[in-house]
Amino acid sequence: MAEANWYVVHTYSGYENKVKANIEKTIENRKLQDEILEVRVPLEDVVELRNGVKKQVSKKMFPGYVLIHMVMNDDTWYVVRNTRGVTGFVGPGSKPVPLTPAEMKPLGIQISEGTQDEAPKREKIDFDAEVGDMIVVTSGAWEGTTSAITAINEHKQTVTIEVEMFGRATSVEIDFLDIKKA
After folding, report:
1. CA distances from 5 to 15, 86, 116, 150 (A)
2. How far is residue 106 CA from its own chain's centroid?
3. Which residues contact 5 (CB under 8 A, 6 or more apart)?
4. pTM for the whole structure
5. Torsion sign, CA atoms 58, 61, 65, 68
6. Which of 29, 37, 43, 161 has a C-alpha 20 to 30 A away from that of 173?
């Protein structure tokens, strides 16, 4: 039997969970459990800040895409490709290209000796303010300071604000979790 690999399938946006359910139902009906091993919609936990209130939610890491661990052959290709909501496999032309272990690792799926382990989910904060918005620092050395945002760094999850220090305006970085909208 051929080796199973992870493939990426493009779907209509918002149809990821329907596609997953439809493929899983087809696997059961056609008894393809040995050929299509797993269907996944990768999620990440995100802390959203809305009006200063923190809320943890799960969001799709790749809207419009579904990951499938399967043995690629004509039957499995046909089943997946003709599932309602699927627009095609990711790859040149009609030839699906499997993901490499290095590409799978950031997704929290590690491939080693035929097994996959879930890595802990990454936590990202979804911040709803923009440059120029007024914020209040809720903790830390600048607690109680009100200032306008001059820059937002999504990667570091910080905002830059101007504070007065020694009679001069000085830029400081504040963590997303330490502020709320004024």
Report:
1. 23, 19, 11, 46
2. 10
3. 69, 70, 71, 72, 98, 99
4. 0.59
5. negative
6. 43
Given a cut of 60, whether residue 121 has pLDDT beyond it is no
- Tokens 């600048």: give the residue: 142
Which residues are within 8 A (CB) of 149 and not within 5 positions of it... i.e. 6 or more apart?
129, 130, 131, 132, 133, 134, 135, 159, 160, 161
d(Cα 25, Cα 141) in Å, to the nearest integer? Answer: 55
Q: Which of 153, 95, 109 is nearest to 129 (CA)?
A: 153
What one-character DSSP code corresponds to residue 71?
-
Burial environment of residue 8 by CB neighbours within 10 A (0 to 12, 13 to 18, 19 or more): middle
Q: Per-residue pLDDT for 176 more than 70? A: yes
CB 181 within 8 A of CB 135: yes
